[in-house]
């Protein structure tokens, strides 16, 4: 990379996976991709040694037990209801705990609530908090690149489960989790992870239905294993479905999307475009009617004194993103329409030439533009005779109220019939009548604005911040 100073290059290469993006490095991701080698592609011969057997077991044994169990075990309504509640509890362990509390630090939680969520998260069997949050922070930082562990550009199934099944070809990009290394609850969960998952994922959901209504087998099948499959794939949908279905309401630079269906599948993590723009916000859904039970849970916890410092991005900044996307869509509409010629691409005609040509062609002047109305004479709603009367003449006053005060639509249509501009006749800046209503407000790119001389000012040493 030519833009890197030699001294920086040495340090960057030596510490490539650990360093933070640096002003001297043009693009950190492409630099890491250039300077670190991926593992060789998986081949038929290497397949067995490249499979992540723990992940394969976690992702295949529970579905197998669930399917066999569901065929052979009667579902009691009490157990069904409990399984759904336990799904919400362990799901919130991931969404309110792993994700919004530990990965993003979007609020503070009391010690009690932290343990409550760490146990719940263990019941979802998705790895310990630190490992999960480290991957997730890399996902946010390197979204849609090869340093993103669940890179959505690798396809729906890769981002859903594929990334776990084979050993990754590259390490996820660097992400700082030093705060979590020091965290008492995170360390406790890490140290006791295996007993915690056995207790939270299997023992508790089996024993509660057994003790309360004598349904040990139902608890084991439905509240432990069927529930586990649902809660796991619910989380996986945040990496797959939320990067695939819906619209980019705040920014379309990357794949995250907003969709109510994803929100329903993921306890409210479906407003993922918003989330990638404002990851420190404790909300995913910003409207009260959007489905975000994780947000409601955090808010209620705050009311109960269990959570505090809920982070919310300033509404003013949130709305800027929304406006940008709305303007982009409007610009697309604007560019899809046909607009009239303006005085830069029309021939300038003298008054005498206009009068002369009007003898053989139905030409009318309005607001300094010469219009050929041949195709319109018979269709004029006010009658052909009004047009014929003004051929070879200036009908500006008549058009704008002298005879009839025409509608905006009529003015827009008139402008499409421009064929020339009268010499000295158009005064764009002073005369609104020269600009059709549909063009008085328009979406312009920054570079198209007349005031975009900021760059040249900077070149001359002016306009720089002090
Ligand atoms: Zn994402
Ligand atoms: Zn996130």
Question: Concise description?
Answer:
This protein has 466 residues and is mainly alpha-helical. Helices cover 51% and strands 4% of the residues.
Topology:
Blueprint: H1 6-14, H2 28-35, H3 47-50, H4 53-72, H5 77-103, E1 108-109, H6 111-122, H7 129-141, H8 156-165, H9 178-181, H10 184-191, H11 193-213, H12 216-239, H13 260-265, H14 272-277, H15 293-303, E2 307-308, H16 315-336, E3 348-349, H17 351-358, E4 363-366, E5 369-372, H18 384-390, H19 396-399, H20 408-415, E6 418-422, H21 454-459
Parallel strand pairs: 3-6
Antiparallel strand pairs: 1-2, 4-5, 5-6
Helix pairs in contact: 4-12, 5-6, 5-7, 5-11, 5-12, 11-12
The structure holds zinc ion (2 copies).
Could you spell the SSE succession in H and E letters?
HHHHHEHHHHHHHHHHEHEHEEHHHEH
> Numbering strands along the chain, what is their spatial order in the largest sheet?
3-6-5-4
Low-confidence stretches: 1-16, 453-466
The number of helical runs is 21
Fraction of residues in H or I helices? 40-55%
- What is the overall pLDDT average? 90
Record field, number of beta strands? 6
Distinct bound molecules: zinc ion
GO biological process, one term: unsaturated fatty acid biosynthetic process
Membrane topology: Multi-pass membrane protein
EC number: 1.14.19.1
InterPro entries: Acyl-CoA_deSatase_haem/ster-bd, Acyl-CoA_DS, Cyt_B5-like_heme/steroid-bd, Cyt_B5-like_heme/steroid_sf, Cyt_B5_heme-BS, FA_desaturase_dom, FADS-1_CS
